Amino acid sequence: MSQEISKIPQATTKRLPLYYRFLQNFANAGKQRISSQELSEAMKIDSATIRRDFSYLGALGKKGYGYDVQDLLAFFRKTLDQDEATNVALIGVGNLGSAFLKYNFRRNHNTKIILAFDSNSPHEGEKISGIDTFHPDRIEEKIEEFGIELVILTVPSRSAQEVTDRLAKTSIKGILNFTPVRISVPDSIRVQTIDLSVELQTLIYQIKQS
């Protein structure tokens, strides 16, 4: 029996979608079983880390046998709710937002952007990359109408908290924040912040240190 995701270390939960992606690659290649070492070589992650991650999830493998690829796929599909689609809204169709709309998680994802908001869009809405896009003054109305659970935030920094406060009044469950602002939300909403400038500076530092 696997543990609840909320009780698993955050570093492990971030690797779960990666495990699922690489297991799909193994399955597509016709592999029936794999070892932690094979997964380690494919993912460039230490095999001890993989075994530790899997130990948090329960007894997934058999000693001397390794891991059954289809069993693992089924496990991760259920753990990550891959059979249940999550409706996503994008707020801010600038350069980054436009890239999200064009990509739109088409491959091997259970998430899809079905709604967008941009200050340049008309009140009555328009299609951008095939996605219904409205002016932000309709955020509360359309979030509920489309049954949105997760929002990708790519607005200017000055607008981040104001938009977040409006989102907090809706029924969304999570925000993927691409602004450098540390937004405040109620406990009912989870936030994951991805600051591209910080990630770049971290990479530069690591390169220089090595």
From TrEMBL:
A biological process term (GO) from this entry: negative regulation of DNA-templated transcription
Domain CoA-binding stretches: 81-182
Pfam families linked: CoA_binding, Put_DNA-bind_N
InterPro entries referenced in this protein's UniProt entry, alphabetically: CoA-bd (IPR003781), NAD(P)-bd_dom_sf (IPR036291), Rex_bacilli-type (IPR058203), Rex_DNA-bd_C_dom (IPR009718), Tscrpt_rep_Rex (IPR022876), WH-like_DNA-bd_sf (IPR036388), WH_DNA-bd_sf (IPR036390)
Domain of life: Bacteria
Compartments where located: Cytoplasm
Keywords of the record: Cytoplasm, DNA-binding, NAD, Repressor, Transcription, Transcription regulation
DNA-binding region per Swiss-Prot/TrEMBL record: 18-57
Binding residue positions for NAD(+): G92, V93, G94, N95, L96, G97
Molecular function in Gene Ontology: DNA binding; DNA-binding transcription factor activity
This protein's GO CC annotations: cytoplasm
Classification via SMART domains: CoA_binding
Quaternary structure (record): Homodimer.
Family: Belongs to the transcriptional regulatory Rex family.
General function of this protein: Modulates transcription in response to changes in cellular NADH/NAD(+) redox state.
Name this protein carries in UniProt: Redox-sensing transcriptional repressor Rex
